[in-house]
Design goal:
The protein is an alpha/beta fold. Helix content is about 35%, strand content about 15%. The chain has a seven-stranded parallel β-sheet, with helices on both faces. The chain has a five-stranded parallel β-sheet with strand order 2-1-3-4-5.
Length: about 325
């Protein structure tokens, strides 16, 4: 009997996979560390949404053998502590790239066409605001993609179909991979920021400093749009709000924030030229089902000895820890 803790609301198809005779299921719908913490002491497996999993919490789960993320990011998980105990951390693979890419393009279009503002003006009876010409097109404009993984590549495909001129910057992708998609390679981030009409971020958060701060924002065109559907903390939100409110940047579209949920004190919340969504880019009905099924299947596959190792993000670290322990015992 395997005891599985599901921390966070899960699509019914994912839960159905875990409702079997050899699985004892603990299901906590609330997405918070406090809500699932009491169940850790008995958990053999943990399926987790976006809430934190610290080293302190991991220490409270002596039987833990696998952690399965309901998604592809794992910034809130203490991977080092998991690796030190030989616990694999899995992600769901390529099940959400299309949903996130569509959401990214939606934010670009909404920012360019000022969708929220025109909606508000229409409802208020300000019909003639249409003559303000306060919107633009994407067709014929340049898109700079920072990070050319699965989501970045899909965004490039859709943007190309819309008539955009696409370039990309990715330190880890060979030029041939980017060029093979019909996309121009930009090696210097600053050059890409200077040239682009739209900048879209698709990279993980590395280190404590934002990727796009006041200096980077100053490089961008005053007519440019900045979109982030990747990770909170990639953009200095105070500097972005200042740039938008000061007319030094045209618009922004954000699905992720440094602190979530975004609080009223966040300067972007009251910024008219920012289009905001609550980290829901991947939460379409179809994508939620795919993520739930994949996350649940990773747990079942692990205990069946059939886990797809390409979905284990800390495979190398676990191997290194085991190798070090073996050498120390000799």
């Amino acid at each position: 009997m395997v005891r599985v803790l599901v921390a966070g609301k899960l699509h019914p198809d994912g839960l159905a996979l875990l409702k079997r005779p050899d699985v004892q299921l603990d299901y906590v719908e609330e997405v918070s560390a406090a809500s699932y913490r009491p169940y850790l002491k008995d958990a053999d497996a943990l399926l987790i949404r976006t809430q934190p999993l610290s080293g302190e919490l991991i220490a409270e789960a002596p039987n833990l053998k696998i952690v399965s993320r309901h998604g592809v990011g794992y910034d809130a998980v203490d991977v080092k502590t998991l690796s030190s105990r030989g616990i694999p951390l899995t992600v769901v693979g390529d099940v959400n790239s299309r949903a996130v890419a569509e959401h990214t393009i939606m934010l670009m279009l909404a920012a360019a066409h000022r969708t929220v503002l025109f909606d508000r003006k229409t409802r208020a009876g300000e019909w003639n605001y249409r003559n303000s010409l306060d919107m633009d097109e994407l067709d014929g404009h340049s898109l700079f993609i920072v990070g050319f993984g699965r989501i970045g590549r899909r965004v490039a495909q859709i943007a190309t179909a819309l008539g955009m001129k696409v370039s990309a910057h990715d330190r880890f992708q060979p030029d041939a991979v980017i060029e093979g998609q019909g996309v121009r390679v930009v090696h210097d981030l600053a050059d890409g920021l200077r040239e682009a009409d739209v900048v879209s971020l698709h990279v993980p958060k590395v280190g404590d400093q934002p990727l796009i701060g006041a200096e980077e924002l100053a490089l961008m065109k005053k007519t440019a749009i900045l979109v982030n559907t990747a990770r909170g903390g990639l953009i200095d939100e105070v500097a972005l709000a200042d740039a938008l409110n000061g007319g030094r940047l045209a618009a922004a579209g954000l699905d992720v924030f440094s602190n979530e949920p975004a609080e009223s004190s966040n300067p972007l919340v009251g910024c008219e030229r920012a289009i905001l969504s609550p980290h829901n880019a991947a939460l379409t009905v179809d994508c939620a089902r795919r993520m739930a099924v994949s996350a649940a299947q990773n747990i079942l596959d692990h205990f069946a000895g059939q886990l797809d190792t390409s979905l284990v993000v800390n495979l190398g670290e676990i191997a290194a820890v085991a190798d070090k322990a073996e050498k120390a015992s000799v």
